[in-house]
Amino acid sequence: MATRFSATEPDGDSDVAAPGSGVDLDKIERGVRLILEGVGEDAERPGLRRTPRRVAEMYAELTEGMREEPREHVRPLPGDRHDEMVIVKDIHFASLCEHHLAPFVGRCHIAYIPKAGRIVGLSKLARLVDSFARRLQVQERLTSEIADTLFEGLKPVGVMVVMEAEHTCMTIRGVKKPGAVTITSAIRGGFRKDSRTRAEAMALIREK
Asked: For this structure, is 108 an active site residue?
């Protein structure tokens, strides 16, 4: 399990990553200090003295999905059965672009059609999204990983995942296009084969 860090009291004593957590806070801290020096800042001035540690703890939190097994969230609920379409939409997520280490933030919509009555807890779908989002990512791969893991783990008739996000790597740098939203989808099983079912799911996702 990934170590959690509190951001509510940044000037207090820092938590230390648990053994085996895979996060070397000291190494990240040294790297951040080099960045501060590289942009011409004084890493020892009062406002920046604890910044390297804060940033190290932030990256440990934002990459905690790397130290989880997403498949653990896809387990059928015992004793509960349902055979109609299930949709959970507007699952908010935050991830890190692996090209610039810049955040991208948005919403994920998941639809699936159970097979043999197998369903998964609704909160597990949100956990599945976070498990894949909280690591270095590109949105296209993130979308496919969520869909593939749900399709392989639950073995439903079909799965559809739609993600929409704003990427700070293109809104605050480079082309600087604030408000631009990237939409990706991954479709598996029955949703791919049946255009009417796919259209029904998309209509429900878009419905306000």
From this structure: no
